[in-house]
Amino acid sequence: MSVRAGIVVTGTEVLTGRVADANGPWVADRLLELGVELAHITICGDRAADIEAQLRFLAAEGVDLIVTTGGLGPTADDMTVEIVARFCGRELTLDIELEAKIAAILKKLMARFSGVDFDAVRAANRKQAMVPVGADILDPVGTAPGVVVPGAPTVLVLPGPPRELQAMWPAAIANDAVQRAIVGRTIYRQATVRMFGLAESGLAETLREAESISGFTDLEITTCLRRGEVEMVTRYEPHSVAAYEKLMDLVRARHGDMVFSEDGSLIDDLVARLLSGRRIATAESCTAGLLVARLTDQPGASAYVAGAVVAYANEAKADVLGVDSALIDAHGAVSQEVAEAMAAGALRRFGADTAVAITGIAGPGGGTEAKPVGTVWFCVALADGTAVSRAVRLPGERADIRERSTTVAMHLLRRILLGLRD
Amino acid sequence: MSVRAGIVVTGTEVLTGRVADANGPWVADRLLELGVELAHITICGDRAADIEAQLRFLAAEGVDLIVTTGGLGPTADDMTVEIVARFCGRELTLDIELEAKIAAILKKLMARFSGVDFDAVRAANRKQAMVPVGADILDPVGTAPGVVVPGAPTVLVLPGPPRELQAMWPAAIANDAVQRAIVGRTIYRQATVRMFGLAESGLAETLREAESISGFTDLEITTCLRRGEVEMVTRYEPHSVAAYEKLMDLVRARHGDMVFSEDGSLIDDLVARLLSGRRIATAESCTAGLLVARLTDQPGASAYVAGAVVAYANEAKADVLGVDSALIDAHGAVSQEVAEAMAAGALRRFGADTAVAITGIAGPGGGTEAKPVGTVWFCVALADGTAVSRAVRLPGERADIRERSTTVAMHLLRRILLGLRD
């Protein structure tokens, strides 16, 4: 037995992409945590016919719970409660107690603005106190109350502002009608494995091989190529743990050296941990600061990031990093020799014990036959004299090459700090 | 007459919110530009029954065009083409020519990985060469081809990686069957105006004033706060051009100094043009390379970007940029004095004629009562001795503050290079 849900996101600004929808993914996450299977997210504009069509669609698909977000405001384009009432075959009725509650909230809110006609505002907001007969009311966080309409499916109506929606969630889930709707939910486990240096099709081959594992079909596996890494997420019920462990044995046997995370950690987290107690500097050419920006995305990075030199021009490589111009003349700026000299320069310049240098051709111009666009040299150098260099040829366009370069650098850095050799 | 479309976004990673969907909003934007009305975006996981249900729903809603994204990869959870074929009542057939094309792409790609069994990979990818009978093929950008299945509705099947989808879009829209599906679209003009330094509510007031303009109600105006800039997008049919021009007269009269773009140009484009013939360096603390990375996003930036020093640690400010430690002791690292010294150091260090320095508190730690998190000092210095400093207090969290700081710096730079004074 399992429980399925659907999410209806309303709002023209979200449909047209002017505002990114934060509610769909957030509610999806909460439902998954609860063990409710999410079947569909649908997004539509503030049009009655489209909202109603989505409700009918989800009901026809047999979901047990529909969560709607948005359309609870006071203006004419806010119509979710009215449409849900019609969809559920219930009349709207004015809830006097709720109206008083909203009026009290508004009075406080309006006190901050001068020259507002309070009665006019309250009349506009009376609309928000109209609820379907027999529905449960969730207290407003802003001015809009949430509504639960019991039934099959049960409909949970939540406000659009993410802050209000998220604050209302605990009360929504505690509601009896919602609890009854999701009573048959399954508790899932979810495991994430991340790999680097592996083509997605290589993993596909391993997964085909895994089909012979007993219970394999009970594992819900999704794979995804992201920022140059392959991510494999598996959802399974507790009784399938043995199948999952056999799968992981196979994945480790085939791709062990490429698996860098089995507990959900990102490469950024792993590198941050490895850098604790160290002092790192970067020397960047084609990435032009993206690596140091990525390292300092982490709160607290100032404990181990000293700084960086972006040496975009060749003179800057020589003047600021102390790279011998003769090296650049002899080997070109994109070369092992220059990457090594840049890393050494960063160590010296910042008194660092760890340095990463990146020099490459991000394009669109600047490529040659020997060094086409996408050619990038990396060097990781440590104060003990360790220096490991590597060249890659990255696909894609300028932005891809620059971004992917930071990922390659993060992984190289991880391996060197772990004492692995490439 | 109007043309309606629906978008089906597939992918368990998107449904569950592990990956933010970039394709729905992007395709929505493109369809709106074309004058196609978007009715629904639906998102589902990699489950055949759910994908098919969404296709049926959109067809029942009478859309003329369905665009699907994702599910074209080589693994078993990629099944969009197969399901679309079934939905359209067409057999799948192996396209020999397409198979050869994909094999050639893979051969090149695989050359970068060692120890991969090429034949096995090719077999996995044969799946990608299976297309519905009578469908048109859109050449792969990665390894996955797009597919157009003519009919009512016409179904346009596009790959999930945004880079591939976006690169395939022009060919998709040029396709005859797609053109036939959207032939009744309304041709709109769309104009974008960008402002900086203006609250969205200030613009809202101007728009209320604009209601007296004759024909104003025929303008479809949306405003949006983005990256600290206010963007106003107006869609209108050609006969409303006079109303739009009157609106712009009013906007210029009210907010002239804040309007920086009326032709769609981004601040990045404007700054790139202004930097032509110059030589710029940045000195960054809290932004840690984000500004120089943003400047070098532009192809050809090597003509005017010399480099940058990220001086994250205070010693780096002193050692690498030559900031007098006494200044830091006296005024703190986040101060006008230090911002000015950093800019001067960048000019000197790189032999630049233009420098931007940023020093601030991105949080979460490090804030004080006098200088709370979000306090950022900027200085733009030119070789002629001009130096303009400014402090702002930015809202939001670490990532917001860092990103918003680069926007403030870009605008300050534009104004100084134009000879405007703040």
Automatic annotation (TrEMBL), chains A, B:
SMART domains associated with the record: MoCF_biosynth
SUPFAM superfamilies: CinA-like, Molybdenum cofactor biosynthesis proteins
InterPro entries: CinA (IPR050101), CinA-like_C (IPR036653), CinA_C (IPR008136), Competence-induced_CinA (IPR008135), MoaB/Mog-like_dom_sf (IPR036425), MoaB/Mog_dom (IPR001453)
UniProt xrefs under Pfam families: CinA, MoCF_biosynth
Domain of life: Bacteria
Every MoaB/Mog domain range: 6-180
Protein family: Belongs to the CinA family.
Protein name as catalogued: CinA-like protein
Species whose genome carries this gene: Mycolicibacterium sarraceniae
Lineage: Bacteria, Bacillati, Actinomycetota, Actinomycetes, Mycobacteriales
